[in-house]
Specification:
Layout (H helix, E strand, L loop, with lengths): L1 H11 L4 E10 L8 E6 L2 E4 L7 H11 L5 E5 L17 E9 L3 H13 L5 E6 L8 E6 L4 E4 L5 H7 L11 E6 L4 E5 L5 H10 L3 E6 L15 E4 L15 E4 L4 H11 L6 E4 L3 H15 L3 H5 L15 H17 L10 H9 L4 H4 L9
Parallel strand pairs: 10-11, 10-13, 11-12, 13-14
Antiparallel strand pairs: 1-2, 1-5, 2-3, 4-5, 6-7, 6-9, 7-8
Helix pairs in contact: 5-9, 6-7
Length: 368
């Protein structure tokens, strides 16, 4: 969602400063790669903290990047002699890259962000400014081809950058992979599909809704969907579903769900959810397996049924939340139990420092 908002604002208000979180030490509300676009006049899109830093960096962004890109450090606590300009309440230290989007490197990055929303992934390697060095950048497409490189970069540096991995910290270089948003195919246009589409859209996913009923498969019913398709059940292949997609079968039509299930099992999307009772789902899987000449066990390995995490609750909204949560967990490789502190972990964390590091924080919101 953040990238969509940044692209939308950049189209509405060209210019401004793009701020990227390039390094975290300790804890932080956002991970490296988080972005914020300060477009002037107080308008902005994206976040780089839990709220303490935004107003301060938006106010100072134009001044910081007035001549060239720069990296500034923001930390939890500081004294009168520390060379750290600001505090935040998350208990960590962050480095922020400020760059004008009017510079060639900034323009190239914004273009790559916009392209990623259309499914064109890329890897961005930024040679960070500092100690007399200016910001330089090279961007590779998914095939490893250079789609942008700062003129100052030698071929040797470009070749070395090609082997760098996103998520790994390198001295003086920041690597970010701009992945395409998660695609979610909702097969079924009943009323219970509406909150599912809304929640997925809030996460910035690309949402495609399909149904064989033309009276229900309309843009008016699903204004947040990227695409609404009238699709006979035998035409599932025409949707272009791939291995990285998520699919929810919720047409409430037994025949349509069975046909779709048989068509999608060989595709093996990363998430294939089947809405319905255990009994209905069991019969559907058994019949789809027979249609394909496969074992029921092999089909079960590829299907999430009953669909969604067991979060409790009832009604379309609760079901939608359970589905979105499970898809998000699968897509990020985080499926598992709830996270809870233990007394032993609390004791270990206290040994690392007491509450003073948080009590001495000055919040950016307090300086306005």
């Amino acid at each position: 969602m953040e990238r969509r908002q940044i692209v939308t604002l950049s189209n509405q208000a060209p210019g401004g400063v793009l701020i990227t979180l390039v390094r975290v030490e300790g804890s932080s509300y956002r991970r490296t790669g988080a972005m914020l676009l300060a477009a002037g006049g107080g308008r902005h899109a994206g976040t780089i903290s839990g709220g303490c830093l935004e107003s301060e960096v938006i106010r100072r962004a134009g001044w910081i990047a007035r001549e060239r890109a720069a990296v500034e450090r923001y930390a939890t606590a500081f004294d009168d002699t520390a060379d750290i300009p600001f505090g935040l309440g998350c208990g960590g230290t962050v480095d922020l890259l400020f760059e004008s989007v009017a510079a060639p490197e900034g323009e190239a990055l914004l273009t790559a962000i916009a392209d990623s929303l259309q499914g064109c992934e890329s890897t961005v390697v930024s040679f960070l400014p500092g100690d007399g060095r200016t910001l330089r950048r090279v961007i590779f497409n998914s095939s490893g081809e250079v789609i942008f490189a700062s003129p100052e970069l030698s071929q040797h540096k470009i070749d070395c950058a090609r082997g760098l991995q996103s998520g790994t910290e390198y001295e003086g270089r920041f690597v970010a992979k701009l992945e395409a948003p998660q695609r979610l195919f909702v097969i079924g246009c009943g009323d219970d599909a509406k909150p599912l589409v809304e929640m997925a859209a809030l996460l910035g996913w690309i949402v495609i809704v399909a149904d064989g009923r033309a009276n229900l498969a309309t843009n008016a019913r699903f204004p947040r969907a990227d695409q609404v398709v009238v699709l006979p059940s035998e035409d599932a292949a025409n949707l272009g579903i791939g291995a990285r997609d998520a699919v929810i079968l919720m047409s409430h039509s037994y025949e349509q769900d069975r046909s779709m299930l048989a068509a999608l099992l060989p595709v093996a999307p990363r998430y294939l959810g089947l809405l319905g009772s255990r009994h209905r789902s069991s019969i559907l899987v058994a019949e789809a397996a027979a249609m394909l000449g496969r074992s029921v066990e092999s089909c079960c390995d590829r299907i999430f049924a009953p669909v969604g995490m067991d979060l409790g609750g009832d009604g379309p909204e609760a079901i939608a939340l359970a589905i979105v949560a499970e898809v998000q967990a699968i897509a990020t490789g985080r499926i598992g139990g709830s996270r809870r502190l233990s007394a032993a972990e609390i004791a270990t964390q206290i040994e690392l420092g007491g509450s003073s590091k948080y009590l001495q924080v000055q919040c950016a919101m307090d300086t306005q």
